[in-house]
User: Fold this.
Amino acid sequence: MDIKTEVLIVGGGATGAGICRDLALRGIPCVLIEKGDLASGASGRNHGLFHSGGRYAVADPEASRECITENGILRKIAPHCIEETDGFFVSLPEDGLAFRDKFLQACEKVGIQTTLLNRDEVLSLEPELNPNLLSAVKVPDGAIDPFTLVLENARDAELHGVKILLHSEVTSLILDGDRVKGAKTKDRIRGEEYTIEASYFVNATGAWANQILKLVGLRIGMALSKGSMLITNTRLNHGVINRCRPPSDADIVVPNDTVSILGTTSIRLEDVEHFEVTPDEVSLLVQEGSKMIPAIRETRFIRAYAGIRPLFLSEEKGDDRAISRGFVLIDHAKRDGLQNLITITGGKLVTYRLMAERTSDLICQKMGRNTACSTHSNPLPGASRPAGLRERFKQFSAARGEIVCDCELVPRKEVEELLGTEKLRDFQDILHRTRLAKGTCQGGFCVYRLLGVLHDSKMLQGDSNKILKGFLEERWKGIRPILWGAAVKEEELIEYIYKGIFNF
Amino acid sequence: MEKPWPKTNSDVCIRCAACTAVCPVSRVSPKFPGPKQAGPGAERFRTPGEPSVDQWIDLCIGCHLCDMACASGVNISELNLIAKAKYTDEKGRPFRDWLLTHTYLFSPLGSLFSPIANLLLKSGTIRWLADSLLKIDRRRKLPRYESPTFRQWFKAHHFNSHKKMAYFYGCYTNTNEVDVAKATVEVLEANGFEVTLPSQRCCGIPMLGNGDFKGARKLGLWNVPSLLNSVRSGLDIVFSSTSCGHMIKHEYSNLLNIPGSEEVAQHTFDIFEFLRNLKEGGNLNTDFRKSSLRAAYFAPCHLKSLGIGFPAFDILQLIPGFKVDYIAADCCGLGGTFGFKKEKYEISEEIGRDLAEAIDRLKPEIVLSDCEGCRMQIRHLTGLKVLHPIQILRDAMTR
Assistant:
């Protein structure tokens, strides 16, 4: 199977999915190739913080301005992916108020609306906050569901004729003079190899950017920074909580549906494939996080995970947080003389659409086309669907059918619908597309039920024991770092189920 | 400042579902998702300050079996009660629920005019009316009033001793099962105790079960100072209704946060727990007549939740010749006012089916239970004679 298209986009994160939707809406044929599932890199491994830009207002006004503009746009085009919670930049006694004043000024300059709240006001909104806090600044932060965002972008692109190849990787790039002619690719599940020819190539692989560039002998200055996060069992905060001080470790707590996510760390990495959350990071996250929300010291965690930020280095700086969180669009024609290759990297999840717009603009310019972007006014499919915790609980309460995931209240019907509509190729793909296995027991109970559903609908491929084992190994990676207290008991029970009943 | 309702730690739930395995309601009705879901599970979805959407929370029968099954110590039924209170506060409780939880207000009248009251309660027309207007199920027999009340009987009763006890008889015993209270007094007297009656009102458990925390707390605030008075004058308190006992010993402090309730709880005992303590100290009058009765004993949920074992079952063994079997079934299904409600009647009866079958297998001449609710339900389901164990003990005492 060989494919010919106008633009080949490598990387199925928010940026890649955003680009193929943007191009598709402009009527430019394209193909997206992703070596894993959609959103399996940094797009799916982040805080889920819907930035207002406040966090970067003081140090990086440009990135901050991009954030607040996109913040406004995404509220309109992707309301079902966003919980409009607001965010609070909290000043603790040890932080003083000097930074707060700078922060307020910077926000005003960038155009971020702020409200200064006194201690009692903020405590009435966020009762779990440290009662000794001095004040808090309210900004339009929120929580975003990155999986749905990426999936909906990809779905809309597909509706507009884009072909999306998942679990397929680029193994080499074929050069023809100063142009890339095609990409040799391989289906990682079936092992099938084929060639994709295109007029333009976009490298949207984030932290993997240099791995693609290596195929044509190029390299960009990029730092890989690991950020680790912890997930609580219950949601502790209504809105996003930030420390009102220069960005540092473990100073954000983002609510996410039933849980809160506490993060992050920032640690330089070389290996983009193999990394884990270390005990030191866990201690740091709990220690620092509990300064903002004291209950963090006592609360139960259900998972630890890490993602990699691809940070573009224009010049070497000591602290990765000092590097711009703005994005970089590299036209390799100008930089390296390779006429039809573009790399887009860096940036934030919130600015994915802008990154896609700029990339598509560049492609249009190269193609000599003059088609305007429409993603800023064109809502994503499903944009009117209701979302949120209460809504899900209400649906569960009103019409209770069989539930597959008890913790996150995922009904069997939802799973069956998903299996019926999407071409899922891997077990983890299912888990990416529902909240299944994201709750208290982290799939200990629902995953074997899911296998039952797959079996009933005759969709189970391969050895189910192997699938379960694969899932459990992945699950264990996330659980091992937070294994104390109730989590240990939970694991004993799960271990008993799998070893004792399923004879693993 | 008053402490808010305690926030039970649902974080320690390990999702094992032991609670759901023992839940009588989810066993018979798919409408109730079971304690694991309704309690710690739902807690992750409830947003403070937002109206409730979990209307099924009203189906929690309040048996506390889930709490006892939980290996992690989550007070699931407490979470359920708090959620139920929020839900019913928002939705409003029907007049029927007010009526069922305020019987203590009009039961003295019922007793005074018992011949007429009982005729009315038995009348098909009245029960039809109650069913269609109030949604009190017509299949449920309404309890008869007795006259004179226990309090009236007690006024004319004299016994003096230097050893004194206080007795919380409960409002149902006072007007509807007077002999239970008489038997309690007589057994205590046979052991040399003079009984006093601290002033008391309904313990409030029917209100609590209907989500009316405010009403229940009001009654608790009335009862506790009076009981505390008895305790501080050196008296121990006994109760013969395990539901009243559960309310006084647990809910007054745990859930309702009533000042002084912990001190009262320390000195309040189930009547058979008290007798068993006497026996352990070698002070129980065990001068019993031989009996040839074959009985079956059913342990109420609220006795189990007291965590004192089955003292009545232990003490009854002391009666020579008396044969008593333990009924292996959980929860009778009445749940206080629960089983009277039209929309819950069928659930209530279905829960009780296990118990009725277990009794049928034992074929006893008589059934015993410490809770008036269980006794009512067993009579209703089996038609057998059902007594409080204290009545059997009293009958066995040689005076």
Observations:
- The two ends of chain B are 54 Å apart (CA to CA).
- Residues 104 and 206 of chain B are 10 Å apart (CA to CA).
- The first helix of chain B runs from residue 18 to 22.
